Amino acid sequence: xxxxxxxxxxxxxxxxxxxxxxxxxxxxxxxxxxxxxxxxxxxxxxxxxxxxxxxxxxxxxxxxxxxxxxxxxxxxxxxxxxxxxxxxxxxxxxxxxxxxxxxxxxxxxxxxxxxxxxxxxxxxxxxxxxxxxxxxxxxxxxxxxxxxxxxxxxxxxxxxxxxxxxxxxxxxxxxxxxxxxxxxxxxxxxxxxxxxxxxxxxxxxxxxxxxxxxxxxxxxxxxxxxx
Length: 227
Fold this sequence. Notes:
It comes from Phaseolus vulgaris. InterPro entries: NDR1-like (IPR044839). This protein is of the alpha+beta class. It has two helices and eleven strands. The protein has two domains: 36-65; 69-226. It has helices at residues 29-63, 160-172, and strands at 69-83, 88-101, 107-119, 122-130, 136-138, 142-155, 174-189, 192-193, 200-208, 221-222, 224-226. The longest helix is centred in the first third of the chain and has 35 residues, at 29-63.
């Protein structure tokens, strides 16, 4: 009679049972797609920057754009009197300018030019040198004359130091007058016309005034052009 197997209790003494395998979640693919798309866009952006930079460089080398040159060629001051009783400045001054286009390929349209005259940091007049009525086109390698007439009177409040400077200038027969010009211009290359540019021109002038029969000549003055 075959031996009976001994009765086993609830305990299990065999090899260890491996833990249940947890389901593996793969990384979502949309993150990888976003990174790939970002990389493509970045490469496109870099390529566009390089292309635009090369285009600007080629344009600059071919056209060689240069700012216009501006000079005050003549100044005629026949009145510059300050009345301390009513703080009124009486003046009469004519300035002649010359604007030169040094470019070989670019024409310039002068659409508007406004001149502002100052004495001792006090503005005493605005004058429209160029308006739409007399705007003009300046061709390459050419110069164009302009003029401004400052005539009239203006109430200015000058302190004692400024009045002292005014009297000294009157004694010397030369007035330090600052003129600022606001431009609105456009450039033309062939049939292409640019948008508006608004450079500012600054002129520090020493304007002579006849004093005691002594005649002092005005020296042509180059002005600073600031874009």
